[in-house]
Structures are given as structure tokens and as C-alpha cells.
């Protein structure tokens, strides 16, 4: 394991049409610029228990929830860098803890067969999570992202995700970023990520574009609408909707 990092911030999602995206892109030009990477593809493998405990808990909208995923930017090679992440949400605040590893190290790491002394604090947290939940790869989710950071406030991030896709086979990031479309989010999924309150200019711009927050979850959408045997639950009024 190499680099470690952590994040604490608020995250809001917005389901947009292309027309709304154009309004927002034009209005944010004086305040935002493309981040260091600009446009790229994100690939994720979401891990869960055999009975889908993590996503089922998440969809109940508890005060605290957590999940485990492995992420890469593009399709990695065997030694290419990927991130192993625990993402937690408590009382509306998102906390992300992650370590960096080679793609070929992921399963030995999560299976706990590598020497424990080579891991830092965050690595130990991930191993504890894995020992408690005993998760395994469940879903691949990929999408194409356009990312911006604030000119004066680089901690303000706005991203636009399109071409959301998923699969439940070949659950290894080295297998490529293919998959079938994820439905139900509109044409563009925008995320606003900020450590505190949104600036006034952004609030006004969202109002101008008639963009309103949504509780859409990529992983939740796959579970609710696309997994075999779950569609009926998504349409049952007594069940919890995707969040």
C-alpha cells in the first residue's frame, strides 16, 4: 500500500437535462475551471455482503451509512494504481478514507493474506471493515466524468457524469469499462462537493437552471431496478425507494 488520503465534505446530486447543464456550464465559467484531469472515465467495483446488507441499509436512509468500493481512473494494468475506499455518511456529511494500491494487490489485501505491518492506519481501518462485513465484489459501475474545481476555492468541486453503465460479471477493474446503461437519472448526473455552505453565485445559478437536489444513487439504482428479483421491491409502496 502506498498513498493514503481522506476527505470530509457535503455532497449534493442533481439530475439534469443537457439544456440545464449548458446553463450551469455557462454560468460557472467566472468561478470554476477544469480540474487537473478535466475529462476522464471512472470505474468502480462495489463490494457488499452476500445478502446485500450495505446497500439495503443505505436505502433505508439511516443517519449513518457506509460502503466499500475499489476505484480506478480508466482501465488499470496489473500494476496500475487503484483506490480502495471506505465511504461513510453521517448526518449529511460525507467522509471518504482510501489507500492506493496496484490493481493486482486488491484481492490479497482485502482477503487479509498480506502482512499486516505493511498497512498504514487507513489500511487497517479497511481491513477491520472487511473482517466485520466479509464483503465480496458485487457490481461494476462506470461513467464518464467532466470535473471542475473552484478558481478561488479549490475545495469546491462540481462534476458532471454521463454514460452510466454497470455489470455483474468480470468484477475486476482490469476487465475494461463496458456495461449496460443505468437508467433513471436523467441525461446528466451533476454532483456539487463542498466542505461548507454553497457560495451565493452557485445557489443563484442552480435556481436559474431550475436544478434541484436528488437522492439518486448509482449503486442503489442497480440494486433496485436492475438486479434479478429486486424490481418488484422497487415498485412496492411499502418498500424504501432508492436513495
Identify the CATH class: Alpha Beta
**Total domains:** 1
Fraction of helical residues: 10-25%
Widest sheet, order of strands: 1-5-4-3-2-6-7-9
Radius of gyration over alpha carbons?
Answer: 18 Å
Secondary structure tally: strands: 10
What integer is the average pLDDT?
Answer: 88
Number of helices: 7
The secondary-structure element order is EHEHEEEHHEEEEHEHH
| Overall shape | globular
User: What ranges have pLDDT less than 50 throughout 5 or more consecutive residues?
Assistant: 230-243
Major sheet characteristics:
8 strands, antiparallel, barrel
Provide the CATH superfamily: VTC, catalytic tunnel domain
Structural overview:
The chain has 243 residues and is α+β, with helices and mostly antiparallel strands. The protein has a single domain, classed as Alpha-Beta Barrel (mRNA Triphosphatase Cet1, Chain A), CATH 3.20.100. It contains 7 helices and 10 strands. It has helices spanning 18-27, 53-59, 106-110, 121-133, 200-208, 218-226, 231-235; strands at residues 4-16, 32-48, 64-73, 81-90, 93-102, 136-150, 157-167, 180-181, 188-194, 213-214. It is globular, with a radius of gyration of 18 Å.
Write the layout of secondary structure elements.
Blueprint: E1 4-16, H1 18-27, E2 32-48, H2 53-59, E3 64-73, E4 81-90, E5 93-102, H3 106-110, H4 121-133, E6 136-150, E7 157-167, E8 180-181, E9 188-194, H5 200-208, E10 213-214, H6 218-226, H7 231-235
Antiparallel strand pairs: 1-5, 1-9, 1-10, 2-3, 2-6, 3-4, 4-5, 6-7, 7-8, 7-9
Amino acid at each position: 500500500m502506498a498513498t493514503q488520503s481522506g476527505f470530509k465534505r457535503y455532497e449534493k446530486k442533481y439530475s439534469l437535462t443537457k439544456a440545464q447543464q449548458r446553463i450551469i456550464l455557462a454560468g460557472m465559467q467566472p468561478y470554476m475551471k477544469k480540474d487537473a484531469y478535466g475529462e476522464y472515465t471512472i470505474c468502480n467495483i462495489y463490494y457488499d455482503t452476500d445478502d446485500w446488507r450495505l446497500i439495503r441499509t443505505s436505502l433505508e436512509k439511516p443517519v449513518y451509512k457506509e460502503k466499500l468500493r475499489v476505484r480506478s481512473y480508466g482501465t488499470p494494468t496489473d500494476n496500475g494504481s487503484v483506490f480502495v475506499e471506505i465511504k461513510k455518511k453521517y448526518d449529511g456529511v460525507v467522509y471518504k478514507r482510501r489507500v492506493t494500491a496496484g490493481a493486482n494487490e486488491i484481492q490479497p489485501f482485502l482477503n487479509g493474506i498480506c502482512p499486516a505491518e505493511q498497512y498504514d492506519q487507513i489500511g487497517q481501518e479497511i481491513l477491520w471493515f472487511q473482517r466485520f462485513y466479509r464483503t465480496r465484489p458485487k457490481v461494476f459501475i462506470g461513467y464518464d466524468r467532466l470535473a471542475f474545481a473552484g478558481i478561488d476555492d479549490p475545495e469546491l468541486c462540481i462534476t458532471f457524469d454521463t454514460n452510466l453503465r454497470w455489470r455483474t460479471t468480470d468484477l475486476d477493474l482490469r476487465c475494461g469499462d463496458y456495461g449496460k446503461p443505468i437508467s433513471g437519472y436523467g441525461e446528466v448526473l451533476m454532483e456539487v462537493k463542498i466542505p461548507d455552505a454553497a457560495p451565493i453565485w452557485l445557489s443563484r445559478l442552480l435556481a436559474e437552471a431550475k436544478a434541484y437536489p436528488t437522492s439518486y444513487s448509482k449503486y442503489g439504482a442497480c440494486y433496485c431496478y436492475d438486479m434479478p428479483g429486486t424490481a418488484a421491491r422497487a415498485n412496492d409502496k411499502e418498500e424504501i425507494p432508492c436513495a
